[in-house]
Specification:
By secondary structure, the chain is mainly α. Helix content is 62%, strand content 0%.
């Protein structure tokens, strides 16, 4: 994760803050901190992708990768909002999603991050596909 989010980045700090203060983070302010949720959701999206969790169709392009990461971030946003005791301000959900989207795009634009993430699970998928092709088949005769 340090390749994508150094410990001093807002996303890593948000993730650390939420995980260390899970029971009180949402009571510090009258409404939910959208930036905190977005940063943590972005961090969790990359963490989930790196682990390969729930990754059934491998992204083949940067656009596909971006969609997967955004879907993961939205899942994290939904989970965090559902567990929070404070409410979002009007328009807060859209702003939180936009902040997460912007953060994801920023990370993918840095260096060769997008290419590295695309190649990460590709070799695993190619070995699975190669194994499927060599499976002995049996013909079935239909009358």
């Amino acid at each position: 994760m340090d390749r994508f989010f150094a410990p001093h980045t807002p996303e890593a700090q948000a993730h650390t803050h939420l995980t260390e203060n899970w029971f009180t983070w949402d009571t510090e302010h009258p409404s939910i901190d959208e930036t905190l949720i977005a940063g943590c959701a972005t961090y969790e999206a990359f963490q989930r992708y790196l682990a390969g969790n729930d990754l059934y169709l491998m992204p083949s392009s940067r656009r596909d990768l971006e969609k997967v990461l955004k879907r993961y971030a939205y899942d994290a946003i939904h989970n965090t909002i559902a567990k929070a005791r404070s409410t979002l301000e009007r328009g807060g959900y859209s702003r939180t999603c936009h902040l997460a989207d912007t953060s994801i795009i920023k990370v993918l634009d840095e260096n060769d991050n997008a290419a590295i993430l695309l190649d990460l699970h590709r070799s695993c998928m190619e070995s699975v596909a190669a194994g499927v092709g060599t499976t002995p088949t049996r013909s079935i005769r239909i009358k």
